[in-house]
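#struct-help
A.M.: can someone run this one for me? Single chain, 325 residues.
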Amino acid sequence: MPRAHAATVADVLVWANLRGTDSHGVSRVPRYLEMIEAGDLNPAAEPQIRTESAASVLIDADRAAGPVAMTFAMAAATDKAKQAGIGLALARATTHTAALGYYTLKAAGEGVAAIAASASIPNMAYHGARAAGVSTSPISIAVPGGERGPVVLDLGSGIVSIGGLALARRQGKPIPEGWALDEAGIPTTDPQRAEIPLPMAGPKGSGLALMVECLASLMVANPILADTVGRPARGRRHRQNAFAIAIDVARFGDPALFAREVDRLAATLKALPRNPDVPEILMPGERGARSYEKRSRDGIPLPRRVADELARVAERLGIAIFPVN
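D.P.: on it. Structure tokens below:
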């Protein structure tokens, strides 16, 4: 990739590890390389704006690395929000977008509220089905905050992400009941057999995933699910579409007041009476912020199998790496 694009991908992946979202961190590097070798990810892609209005852009990502396309999309949406009060960027034909909280949190740091979501190939069961019918379709929402910093929600529509299952396989640990189905659609706790995540909150999670496909894929005339449901997973091309929305807080009120009210709301909720087994009431993103601070100071722990896999990839490509302890 161009050096700037490679740096963006690296920054987004390491950010996920720092936040404790290891399923979307550097463990993804081997998969990204597979996507390049298969032609699913275009390392030389330069996202381009194809159509534009006062408050929206349509971006042709040309199968760019997801972090490159989403960084471009969120920046475009933020620019539109600064001009029109609200901005929408639709990114057509991107690839794995990594942790969406990276982009919304960055936008919140610039004084805008932000929403991002992505649609992908069917890899999660639709509620009531024994086969993959929708994507785990992650979504993130972030708002600027005051002294406590921005509040960021970052979740997938599945009980567990595909990356989470892959990480469980590398760690060799059983997964909880109700997380996933095997290839035949049978519930399993064996991470080596788990193939299909189940939707978060049943019909709510699968319904959310369906609507993300409508907004991210059908809106840009690049349908994914209807073209791929029922086809064998192996050999199926990786495809994604995404969108980013930015809202300029200053256009609708005093941003300083908004930030103080976000802090006040968080403090009010954290002061609620707690269940006996709950040590602290946490706000969205609070655990990740603490992990970021700790891991920035102490380093990022990697499972041995992830470290070994990265070492093997580096050796195959003739890239020198630091010794793994």
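A.M.: thanks! The longest strand covers residues 86-94.
D.P.: also worth noting: The mean pLDDT is 95.
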